[in-house]
Amino acid sequence: MEVASNASVILEGEDLRFSCSVRMAGRLQGRFSVIWQLVDRQNRRSDIMWLDRDGTVQPGSSYWERSSFGSVQMEQVQPNSFSLGIFNSRKEDEGQYECHVTEWVRVVDGEWQIVGERRASTPISIIALGE
């Protein structure tokens, strides 16, 4: 699994783009659920956006307003590739960005079962304007 970003240091107000790619197990036709999280300098973890295994994208509670304006977006680019965009970044967007992927398969009785979980992260520094 790999997480990449467009830059590791940006100026406040610039855009952040992340990609998260997973090597698929290649067995039964499965699905993924994905959570993008930010771990800030005080080691506080917050959910930015998540995609459930049915394809529904939801913002985390502290990103609800920004996502409603389109300044935080997530999409499934390919079956095993997911992106996160944060536009007009703020100083508080600084920290460790983590992509947590859960792989699901449907078992014989029709229930979904977790067959794998992986996470990867990348650090981002934001230079505040006026510093």
Question: What this model shows, in words?
Answer:
With 131 residues, this protein is mainly beta. The protein has one helix and ten strands; from the N terminus they run ββββββαββββ. The protein has one helix at residues 64-68; strands at residues 2-5, 9-11, 16-21, 30-39, 45-51, 57-59, 72-78, 81-86, 95-106, 112-127. The protein has a six-stranded mixed sheet with strand order 2-10-9-4-5-6, with no helix packed on it. Strands 1-3-8-7 form a four-stranded antiparallel sheet. A hairpin with a 5-residue loop joins β4 and β5 (45-51). It is elongated. The mean pLDDT is 92.
Structure keywords:
131 residues; mainly beta; 6-stranded mixed sheet; 4-stranded antiparallel sheet; 4% helix; 56% strand
Task: Please provide a brief summary of the model.
This protein has one helix spanning 64-68, and strands at 2-5, 9-11, 16-21, 30-39, 45-51, 57-59, 72-78, 81-86, 95-106, 112-127. With 131 residues, it is mainly beta.
| Unreliable sequence segments | none
Major sheet attributes: 6 strands, mixed
Strand content: over 45%
User: Structural class from helices and strands?
Assistant: mainly beta
Query: Between the first and last Cα atoms, what is the distance in angstroms?
Result: 35 Å
Q: What is the strand arrangement across the widest sheet? A: 2-10-9-4-5-6
Task: Give Rg in angstroms.
Answer: 16 Å
How many runs of DSSP E, i.e. beta strands?
10
Helix content: under 10%
Categorize the overall geometry: elongated
Secondary-structure element order, as H and E? EEEEEEHEEEE
Query: How many helix segments?
Result: 1
Average pLDDT reading: 92
